[in-house]
Amino acid sequence: MTTDGGGAFPEGFLWGASSAAHQIEGGNVASDFWELEHTPGGPFAEPSGDACDSYHRWREDVGLLADLGLTSYRFSLDWSRIEPEEGAFSRAALDHYRRMVEGCLQRGVSPVVTLQHITVPRWFRRSGWWTGPEAADRFARFTEAVLPVVSEGVGWVCTINEPNFAATLEYDLAPGSAPPGPAVPAPETVEAFVTAHRRSVEVLRSVPGLSAGWTVCAVDYQPVGDAGKAVDEWARLRQDVFLEAARGDDFVGVQVYTRELIGPDGRLPVPDGAETTQIGWEYYPEAVAGAVRHAAEITGGTPIMVTENGVATADDTRRAEYVTRALRALRSVMDEGADVRGYFHWSLLDNFEWLLGYAPAFGLIAVDRSTFRRTVKPSARVYGDIARTGHLPD
C-alpha cells in the first residue's frame, strides 16, 4: 500500500486514536495494578481511581471520535473484569465490550481491539505472571472466552500490548530486581511473551477474516559517530526480538514517540537545547518514520499499523504541530514502500499514565478530573481535518 506522492493517504487507511482499559475506565479493582497502586511505598505517583469513567461514558468518547472525522478506535479489554477469578468469566463484562464494538460500528468507526494492555488479573500475577508455568494456556483460554466480542465487526486484534515495555516495567514495580546498567527484558520473559502471543494468534485465526498481531514499543534509535554496531546491539534486545516474533503475523503495531541517540558506548542524553516533553523525551515527531522503516526491515514486510504515536505536552499547539509533522514523515516512508495500514494517535483522552499518574497530557480530548467533562482540543480538530480529507496541509 503506497500513497500517490502528493500528500494523500490511500483509500481505506485507518485514522484513529488509542486508549487502554485501565487508563480510562476507572474502578478496575480486580487488576494487579489496582493492588500495586494502593501498596504503601510503591512507585505510583497516584492511584488510577475513577480514571476517566469511560467504562460508563464510552458512548460519548466514541461519539466525539467519530465527530472529529476519525474512522477507527483502538481500545482494550480489561482481563481482570472479564475473568476476575481464574476460570470465572463475567458474562456482563463480555457483553459490555461487545456493546462497545457494536457502538463503534453504529457510528461508522472500525474497532481495533487489544486483548491485554499492560495490566492482568490479580490472580494471574500471583500465579507467576507471564513467566508462570501455565501463562500461555491461561491467555489462550482468555482469548477463546473473548471470541464473541471480536468475531463480528472487528477486523484487527492486538494480542499483547508492548511486551517489551511490560517486561522492563517490572523492574520499576519490584525495586532491586533490575540488572546493572540500562534494563533489558530477561530472555525467559521474552520467550514467555512470544509463546503466549503465538497461542493467542492460533485461537484468533479460527475467526475468518480477522487480522491478528501484537504491538511493540519502538524507538527511533539513531547512531552518533561510529556507532552503527552499537545501535544494532542496543535495539536487538529492546525491540528487535519482539519485531522478529511478528514475522508471519497479519500485522504488527508500532508504537513510537521519540528518538534516542546511541554512541559507541550506549545511549546518549537528549541534545543540549532540544525541546522536551512533559516526561523528558525529546520532541521529535519524525521518529515515526525511522521506527516504521526499521520495523519493515526486521519483520520482512509484515503489514504495519502505527498503533500509538503522540506527545505529552500542556501546549496544544505543539501537539498540533507534532501530529502534522509525524504524519508527513509517515507518508514519506510509505512512499518508500512501507506497507502501513493506519495511524492511531495516543491518546484519545488525557488519562492515567501508569507510574506518572495524571500529570502528562497526551490526549486529543481533555478530561476534567472532578466532573469528567470532555473538552475537545484544537489539535484534535487539526488531526480530524487531515483524517477527513486524507491529505496533509500544504
TrEMBL record:
It comes from the Bacteria. One of its GO terms (molecular function) is hydrolase activity, acting on glycosyl bonds. The keyword Lipoprotein does not apply. Its EC number is 3.2.1.-. Pfam families: Glyco_hydro_1. Keywords: Glycosidase, Hydrolase. It is an enzyme of class 3 (hydrolase). Belongs to the glycosyl hydrolase 1 family. This is Glycoside hydrolase family 1 protein. It comes from Sphaerisporangium corydalis. The lineage of its organism: Bacteria, Bacillati, Actinomycetota, Actinomycetes, Streptosporangiales.
